[in-house]
Amino acid sequence: MVRKILGLFALSGLLVFGFSSCDSSGESSDAAIQYETRYDSLNAVIKDDPNNAALYAMRAEWRKDDEDQASAYSDLDRAMELDSLNDQYYLRKAEWLIEEKQFGKAKALLDDAIYKVPSSTGIMLKISEIYMWAGEYQKCINWANAALGFDAYNGQAYYLKGMAHKYSKDTVKAVSSFQTAVEQNPDHYEAYIQLGMLYAIENHPLAEAYFSNAIKVKPESVEALYAKGLFLQENEEAKKALDQYRRILELSPDHVSAWYNMGYVKLILEEELDSAQYFFEESLKRAPDYADAHYNLGYTMELKGEKEEALKKYREVLEMNPSHTLAAKGVNRLTGQ
To answer: What pTM did the predictor assign?
Structure first.
């Protein structure tokens, strides 16, 4: 019988298909045990090995996937009872509680857990993260520093410090912390995104490089591709911006902002009116109430000399949003008022 589990899912294949014994010829014996469900097989293993914490943790994950929350928590609690020094069980339960927005319970669990596993940087960082979302930024920094006391090269700790400094409006320290985060962990996607955003505010060319690094870490990140595209668009690098938006549409064909921004680039930066009209119309197919897309479609029509259609669009915009200043000006231009 299995006595050691290398990971929560190490037994999955064995449990799903049941157990069978083979004779010396390699053929299955008639004594093979077949189970109707994966739970039946796992329950049989737990019955034979009732003090194996990893087995309860595995069943907890299955139950969580099946939305049997109460049973999942019960199993994870049992895993913690059997192996109180395994910080992963505390962290997993805290993550579930946070998903359910039970932040107080998550914090209480971790406060208790850190006394049981006082050297767990994972628990320290999760507490730091909770303080960050709670807006207690100095406490966030304090717990991140506590984790760094055990692991001076922990990129996540520097990232959390960076977020605390960012929310505290200390941009210089935020940038420094995020830069240290990626120095310690060159694959820290979130830190690259934050650096890109902070440099983009200053219109600094390093923003593009940081967004590009984020894309290298997660090549299919629509978030990073869009952020890079928008930065390039704002710096009038039309072709490079369009490349980002096209890539987004390969990954997410109904990404409204990518369709809209391609129209904007074609209209404002490249002055290709037919292409601009196409992209605005595509964005409106996906978001019919997108007032700015209606306005820019109208403006494109106006530039093409299609004044009646343009006027109709401007009036549609004002029906959606009576305070849309540009649409009101468009009506005034075309009516001579």
So the answer is: 0.85
